[in-house]
Amino acid sequence: MTAGTGTDEAALGYEQARDELIEVVRRLEAGGTSLEDSLALWERGEELAKVCRRRLEGARARLDASLAAERAAEAAEAGGGDE
């Protein structure tokens, strides 16, 4: 397993990062790796968790913006009436 670079992480989608993170956790839980390999896996897991968190935060921001736009449109319709 190789550590990702910033550009690799930016290219990862949520599902890819999540799936790789699941594999990292599985390998750490299984044990049998050297201390050095375990540390590298842990660091990769931390990077992947950050990718997932950023992707989820971005999705939340898009959802919030969409809901705000919908509420604004509804308020404009309700307030606009027949003028």
Structure description:
It is rod-shaped, with a radius of gyration of 21 Å. α2 (14-30) packs antiparallel against α3. It is built from three helices and no strands. The relative contact order is 0.13. The protein has 83 residues and is an all-alpha fold. The longest helix has 46 residues, at 35-80. The chain is 83% helix and 0% strand. It has helices at 6-11, 14-30, 35-80. The mean pLDDT is 89.
Which oligomeric state applies? single chain
Strand fraction band? under 5%
Averaged pLDDT? 89
Overall shape: it is rod-shaped
Low-confidence stretches: none
CA-to-CA gap between the ends?
Answer: 66 Å
Structural class: mainly alpha
The profile of the biggest β sheet is: none
Evaluate the radius of gyration. 21 Å
Number of strands: 0
Number of helices: 3
How much helical structure, as a percent, in the residues? over 70%
Secondary-structure element string: HHH
Topology readout:
Layout (H helix, E strand, L loop, with lengths): L5 H6 L2 H17 L4 H46 L3
Keywords:
single chain
In short:
It is built from 3 helices and no strands. The protein has 83 residues and is an all-alpha fold.
